[in-house]
Amino acid sequence: MSRREGSLDPQADSSVSPLPHLEAKIRQTHSLARLLTKYAEQLLQEYVQHQGDPFGLPGFSPPRLPVAGLSAPAAGHAGLPAPERLRLDAAALTALPPLLDVVRRHQAELNPRAPRLLRRLEDAARQARALGAAVEAVLAALGAETRGPPAEPAAAASAAATAAGVFPAKVLGLRVCGLYREWVSRTEGDLGQLVPGGPA
Length: 200
Fold this sequence. Notes:
By secondary structure, the chain is mainly alpha-helical. It contains 5 helices and no strands.
């Protein structure tokens, strides 16, 4: 084997790591995030349609319930180093599935005749897990450490307790669907900056 062929050796200079594999992983994950951003928007619209008044009325501003274990992307998120942004994205995507499951259970009671909404919520939980795992794979490929998942059951139980009553349950669902859209969109943007030829 020539010295040039030996450059793929793991012991070789890290600057000649298998970039095509990394680029392909980033592109694939970015494409998934872009697709899920569209689905998240559809989920939010469909959720609002099934909640009745005052949801969906012009000017309606629901109370911003805090969601245990999850908040919106911080104002300074875009200024963080790429690995840190992706770690935050992955942590949020890991926290979302149990919260989406809580919302789906509430909606199964409140809107049992809305099978498409219930299916979208179930799909969203599965898709958030898949995107979170893909982002963690990108982090691993970049050589960055990933953090352990948060305490999902505790966050979900807290959210369920916060949503005692019909209106709070509907508001919680709106908030969780909104956070899902925000974090998937934020993940798409963060990955887009890593895609070769993407925005700097």
